Amino acid sequence: MPPPNKNTPTVRRILKEAKELSEPDKDIHAAPTEDNLFEWHFIIRGPPSSPYEEGYYHGRINLPSNYPLAPPSFRFLQDSGRFDVNKEICLSISNFHVEEWLPAWGIRTALVALRSFMATEANGAVGSIDGVPDETKREIARNSREFKCSTCGGQRNYELLCATTEGGSTNEPQLEASVVYRSVEQQSGNNSGDKLQREAPKHTGSIDGSGQDVSTQQIEHASQGIFRNKLTVIVSVLVAIWAVRFLL
Question: Burial of 53 by CB count in 10 Å (0-12 exposed, 13-18 middle, 19+ buried)?
C-alpha cells in the first residue's frame, strides 16, 4: 500500500494522534499497522477494582476515510469475558452511534471510554456478552497477557504495553510510533526538502570565509554605492537652492 498523502486533514489528524500515542503508557497502547494507517491495533489494561483488573486486552480499530468527522469501529481480537471476539462493539463513541460522536474526541478518548465500559453490565449491547462468572473473567484476565498478535510482530500483550515492575522501573520495550507514521514523516520531509531545493535561488560565484555568496556581497556593495551617490546629489541640490535664496 503506497504511503498516504500527509497533506489531507484526515491523515494529518491520524499522524498527530499516532505521535501522541507513541508515548509509553501503562494502561493503553495503540498504533497504526505497518501497511494501513487507517487500521490500528490497541491493548488496554483491564479497569481497576474489577474482574478484568489483571488483564491485557488486544483489539482492532478501523478509522473511516473521513475521520475524525465520523467515529471509528472497535472489536476485540481475543477473549475477554466481556466482549465477543472479532465482532464490532456498540458504544456511544463507535460507528454504531454516529450522531453522538464529536470530532474533538480521538482514539485515546475512545479507548479510555472503552476501558471504563468494560466494568459495566453488558445489558444485551451488540458485541457484548452476558452471564460470564467473575472467576472466569479473572482467569481469562490472568491468561490474557500472553496473547500474541501476528499483525503486531508476534509480541505478547504485556510486551507491547510496557508493563511496569513493582519497583516502578520499566523492563519491557518502549512504545514507538508506527512504521507507517515514521515512513510518512520521512517521505514528507524528503518531499519538503526537494521542494525547497527546487525553489531555492541559484547563485553563482564562490563562497568567502564568512559563508556568504561573493556575488551577493557585490550586489549589496553596489546598492550601497548607488544610495550614497543619490544622497550626495540631493544634498548638493539643497545647498544650491539655499545659496540662491541667500544671494537674493
Answer: middle
Q: Is residue 247 part of a domain?
A: no
Q: At 92, is the pLDDT very low, low, confident or very high (cuts 50, 70, 90)?
A: confident
The CATH number given to whatever domain includes residue 118 is 3.10.110.10
- What pLDDT score does 104 carry? 94
For residue 138, being part of any structural domain is answered with yes
Indicate whether 79 belongs to any domain: yes
Range of the domain at 148: 9-183
| Stated pTM of the model | 0.65
- In-domain check, residue 244: no
Strand (E) positions, the chain? Answer: 28-33, 36-45, 56-62, 73-76
Cα–Cα distance between 248 and 244 in angstroms, integer?
6
Q: Is 90 a catalytic residue?
A: yes
Q: In this structure, is the dihedral angle defined by the CA atoms of residues 199, 201, 207 and 212, taken in order, positive or negative?
A: negative
Q: Quick: pLDDT tens for 19-33.
A: 999 988 889 999 999
Could you say which of 90, 149, 152, 162 is catalytic?
Answer: 90
Phi and psi torsions of 187, nearest 5°: -65, -40
Q: Cα(140)–Cα(239) distance, rounded to whole angstroms? A: 99
Neighbouring residues of 101: CB distance < 8 A, sequence distance ≥ 6: 70, 71, 93
Tell me if 27 sits within 8 A of 38, measured CB to CB. Answer: no
- Give 220 or 142, the one with higher predicted confidence: 142
180 grid coordinates: 507507517
Write the pLDDT tens digit of every residue in 140-172.
999 999 999 999 888 888 788 864 333 333 433
When divided into structural domains, the chain yields a total of: 1
